[in-house]
Amino acid sequence: MKLLCWNVNGIRAVERKGELARVLEKHDPDVFFVQETKASKDKLSSALTDSPVYHQFYHAAEKPGYSGTAIWVKKTLSSTPHWCTGMPGFDDTEGRIARVDLDNITLFGVYFPNGGKSADAWQGKMQFYRDFLAHINQLRTQGKQVIWCGDVNCAHAEIDIARPKANEKSIGFLPEERAWISDVITHQWVDVYRRTYPETVMYSWWHMISKARQRNVGWRIDYAFVDQSLYDHVTHVHYDNAQMGSDHCPLVLHIDLPE
Length: 259
What we know:
- By secondary structure, the protein is α+β, with helices and mostly antiparallel strands.
- It is 25% helix and 27% strand.
- It is built from 7 helices and 14 strands.
- Strands 3-4-2-1-14-13 form a 6-stranded mixed sheet. The protein has a 6-stranded mixed sheet with strand order 5-6-7-8-12-9. Strands 10-11 form a two-stranded antiparallel ribbon.
């Protein structure tokens, strides 16, 4: 199964630029996870909602032009994917969590909060982190095989950010956030790229206004995680740094799922 995960920073914009068609042709994913769709389904073109190739599920934010997630699943992969949103105790009005169940495999595409707008937003981000980890841990105890990916809005280690010293007090690289990712890993969830390439410098987001991408002054804040039991089934993972159209680049994961 080929998975493609991309924070598009506006799905209508990447469609208009031709970059959406380009990335789909290049990678031909079985499952496509999208973050920051920034549009309700009724505002999208027929190509984005009525594909002959994909089942297309959208979870939009209540606020127009904000946040939102989507999952596309190839019709050849599943005739009846089961979709759901949110998690227990969380009112997902911002469209942050999209989930699809394919038999015993549970796949999440998540747009984690940034947390930088206010003290309340920061506390909300940390609560979201805690609640999400509890949720996937619970699914594991129920026998689900879980894969989750998305924009986590945190660079875990110094290798994951171009200027760690300058950002020691920046949202997205604060000790509490980084400790949460460490906690995730302690709970036997594998950061697939970093486990596979422990010493490779790679970024997935660049500040657009400062033209940081041209200088590769970036952050790795987009991740794919799998349960420890699934990691040996991963056959390929990479960031497509050449793909344009957003301030993020896509993450590609290939996994041979166990029978």
